[in-house]
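Customer escalation, tier 2.

The customer says the design service returned an amino acid string that "doesn't look like it belongs to this structure." They asked us to rerun it and document both sides in this ticket. The original structure tokens are below, unchanged.
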């Protein structure tokens, strides 16, 4: 089996990204985000991409559409690639609001409690299980050069799993997923080879060279 390359693209910028607001799945790219989507499409256009997958959130779909047009590929959207769901109680809340800070603290403190939820949000255990499912989907996919347009938390979580597997605690996993830095429009490249001791490997992370000057 040839080494599989997975290119994780964070969607372009939105107005809510700039305002530090928790977003619903219906938020569109702003003008800068559209430029970032075009730039990442050009950067990936030189690669032998055979598969384009995307979160079904509007900002990811729009980013994937720009890539699809550049590469002349069809994009397939999947709910599983959505961002960590913080719950409708936090949608529209500033990241530093009292409710947001409370929800984040509780999520970290109760990371080991698989039955705890903040409203209808996803808990840490559920999120890590979903990340495991994403890994399985990508590992079993027939494509060898796969783009996944997704979100900061998902990219951080996949990077954590590639580096630590299940050796990292749920608390460390939560911190890495929520607090890790991933710029809008960036590319993180993972490779997968089941013949290696560590099948997943990080080739590059948060690559923004194609975004210079935007």
């Amino acid at each position: 089996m040839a080494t599989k390359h997975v290119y994780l693209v964070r969607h372009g910028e939105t107005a809510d990204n700039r305002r530090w607001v928790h977003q619903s799945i219906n938020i569109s790219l702003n003008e800068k985000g559209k430029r970032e989507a075009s730039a990442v499409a050009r950067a990936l256009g030189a690669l032998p991409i055979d598969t384009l997958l995307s979160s079904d959130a509007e900002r990811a779909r729009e980013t994937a559409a720009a890539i699809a047009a550049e590469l002349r590929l069809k994009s397939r959207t999947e709910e599983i690639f959505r961002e960590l769901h913080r719950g409708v109680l936090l949608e529209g809340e500033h990241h530093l609001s009292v409710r947001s800070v409370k929800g984040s603290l509780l999520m970290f403190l109760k990371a080991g409690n698989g039955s705890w939820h903040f409203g209808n949000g996803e808990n840490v255990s559920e999120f890590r299980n979903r990340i495991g499912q994403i890994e399985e989907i990508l590992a079993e996919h027939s494509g060898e050069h796969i783009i996944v347009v997704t979100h900061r938390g998902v990219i951080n979580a996949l990077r954590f799993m590639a580096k630590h597997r299940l050796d990292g605690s749920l608390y460390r996993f939560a911190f890495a997923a929520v607090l890790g830095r991933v710029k809008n429009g960036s590319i993180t490249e993972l490779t997968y080879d089941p013949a290696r001791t560590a099948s997943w490997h990080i080739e590059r992370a948060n690559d923004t060279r194609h975004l210079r000057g935007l």
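Tier 2 assessment: The sequence is consistent with the input. The chain has a mean pLDDT of 94. The first helix runs from residue 15 to 19. Sent an explanation to the customer and offered a walkthrough call.
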